[in-house]
């Protein structure tokens, strides 16, 4: 900005805005892309958003489970009812079961390799809808006509960035403290549609 009285006034307003929690959150959401929600054809508001970094009771984090470039099925239900569906796609999906420190009210979550939530089930996950989501995102292209897309002869789960695993926001400065706060606000609104 030009150093004139008007630009100094605008700078002062922006500084004041950034000095507040709401202002900082707004600017961060807009500039980082974390507030984006992809329309994946599901009314559940967590679907299509970046997955929160769930912490399982055994200390495992979602970010750790995603390091090999596969999707992740987190099953928080006591009976592990989604295990066999996920096992059928074991080369493309990593299955993890057990209670989470904060499951945000979900019974299970399916996360794509890019960190976007592909499916989220309530406390009693619907096996049929989970299977449909797994088939949509992780089946062979030849078997269902929809499965994972191929990129230069490799499936989406195998794509790497210059010989390394694709970078993830879970690896960067967007720490789990911020994600907990942001998704906690969503939970406070009970993750309502259109949020």
UniProtKB/TrEMBL annotation:
<dbReference type="Pfam" id="PF21274">
    <property type="entry name" value="Rng_hyd_C"/>
</dbReference>
<feature type="region of interest" description="Disordered">
    <location>
        <begin position="141"/>
        <end position="173"/>
    </location>
</feature>
<protein>
    <recommendedName>
        <fullName>FAD-dependent oxidoreductase</fullName>
    </recommendedName>
</protein>
